[in-house]
Amino acid sequence: MNFLGPFLRINTLNKNNIKNQLFYLSKESLKDIVFDSKCGVYIPAQDLRSKSFSKIDINTINLNSPLLCIYKKVDAKLKLKEGNLSWNENKSKKETTVSSNAFMTLSLLELADYYYGFKDIDDNKYALGCMHLKLCKEQLEFYASNFRNKDGLFVDKKDLTDPMHKEFNFEDKNNKFKYSDQAFMMAAYYKYSSYDQSEHEYEKFSLDILNMFTQYKEEIYNVSFEELNKICFALNIFYKYSGLEKCQDLLLDFLDLLIEQYNARPNLIINAKLDQSCMLFINCTLMYNNTSILKFKDTSDDLFEKLSKLYDSEKGILLKESVDKEIIYNSDELILYLYSLILYSDFNNIEDNSRMLQDIFKNQILDSGLVLSWPDAPALDNIEHYRNFSLKSEDLIQDDDFRMPEVPTPESSELASIFIKNVVYNKRKESFKQSKLSFDSNKNMFIFFITTFFRNQ
Questions:
Q1: DSSP readout, 7-57?
Q2: Is the pLDDT at 9 greater than 60, yes or no?
């Protein structure tokens, strides 16, 4: 009779449950994309041994094509090949963006932290941490060799490599560069260097980028609100990894300017730039947590109050102001809004299991179709399925701490476990429709990093 399931399904959604589900989705999706999708430049199977991937590493995971870099866009529809579902690497946009690759490596480094927590508990899972770290080193070397322009700055590229030749051929997409891209790469190189004190070159490379920010500080004051906000987020990440005073000094200067610009037009920024409002909230929250300077708490409290008012309790959704019949919700802005709610309760020691948090997760993340599928919960013999990894029946974690049962799996939907670019809400019909079913690495890698980074806070 087990197939009937429970007679009454009790709503178990709460803040920790939501965080756990999003972390599980990110962890498993990254494993699939990075190690098995071939959606980018990857290490051929025959070269894995020479890249010092040990036997235990390879046997622990479906290690067919570890990515050296990820492409910008790929079809999210999976194809059946030799009885297994796989990504269609032929339907990819062979362009690379600095930010998506930086966030991919940062996410893998955060997951290395997670898997290193299995030391003396589970050798295979601990080995996953070692393998993540080895792959990150390969990726960072690849970025430094192929993703910089003639001035040494990281820029977006087009992959023009001839498959008949071994030499890589990446061409600058345009002459523009973003300071924020340099900052996220800076964080990735520094984070990697922190694992091994002998890796001085990675730390030095990272600090060279930090010195560039100090040298060109006056010029950076003139970048857009959005760009400065991203720079501050990258510096907050870097400060979490390094604790360097020089980084904090830059953050103080740049955040002062952001707050000044926000205070000059708060309602305009809230209404027109929801993602940027949430990012500013996160930046100020992290900065107050590091410095205890009240100005940052005052700004984050003001932002949170205004952001909270966007929630419509009757409809159970975040409702952006718009005169149009339809409202577009980007996946990254919804995740940023959700984590703004979560961080507010975490940093203020509030046990927030509010209806608002539950509604937005269920209605706008799950039921809207924003996530195409969700990986199935781990097997019962997997120690991640138990509190404290005990494998004791009394410590068994329920499946809905990994995924909600109504969301399809990749196997049932033949769609990848990813976030699509956006969903559109029809105000008259009070319903959502999906955008194109494609994988946007910029949005997904950013979301995966958010969920892994804040799990480790």
A1: SS------HHHHHHHHHHHHHHHHHHHHHH---EEE--GGGTTTTT--HHH
A2: no
Q: Of 56, 169, 163, 170, nearest to 118 (Cα)?
A: 56
Question: How open is the CA angle 322-327-332, to the nearest 5 degrees?
Answer: 115
* Percent of the chain whose pLDDT exceeds 70: 93
pLDDT tens sequence across 132-179 = 999 999 999 999 999 999 999 999 999 998 877 778 999 998 879 999
Task: Give the Cα separation of 313 and 356 in Å (integer).
Answer: 7
Distance CA 22, CA 454 (A): 11
Phi, psi of 55 (to 5 degrees): -60, -40
In which residue are the tokens 């893998």 written?
Answer: 108
Q: What is the pTM assigned to this prediction?
A: 0.94
What is d(CA 358, CA 355) in angstroms, rounded to the nearest whole number?
Answer: 5
The C-alpha angle with vertex 62 and arms to 47 and 71, in degrees rounded to 5, equals 70
Alpha carbon dihedral 180, 247, 286, 403, in 10-degree steps, equals 50
pLDDT digits (tens, 9 = 90+) for 369-389: 999 999 999 999 999 999 999
Residue 354, judged by CB atoms within 10 A of its CB (0-12, 13-18, 19+), counts as middle
In 3D space, the residue among 392, 385, 361, 445 whose CA is nearest the CA of residue 24 turns out to be: 385
Residue closest to 86 by CA, chosen among 41, 36, 30, 29: 36
Q: Return the SS3 of 142.
A: helix
Check if the beta carbon of residue 404 is closer than 8 Å to that of residue 302: no
Contacts 24+ apart (CB under 8 A), 352-355: 352/15, 353/13, 353/14, 353/15, 355/313, 355/316
pLDDT at 352: 62
Which structure tokens are listed for 357? Answer: 């948090």
β-sheet with 92-93: strand ranges across: 92-93, 73-75, 438-440
Closest residue by Cα to residue 43 from 27, 58, 23: 58
Angle at 176 between CA 172 and CA 180, to 5 degrees: 110
Q: Using CA atoms, how far apart are residues 133 and 111, in angstroms rounded to an integer?
A: 9
CA 163 and chain centroid, separation: 30
Q: How many CB atoms are located within 10 Å of the residue 266 CB?
A: 15
- Res 348: pLDDT: 84
Q: What are phi and psi of 418, to 5 degrees?
A: -140, 165
Show the 3-state SS of 228-278: HHHHHHHHHHHHHHHCCHHHHHHHHHHHHHHHHHHHHCHHHHHHHCHHHHH
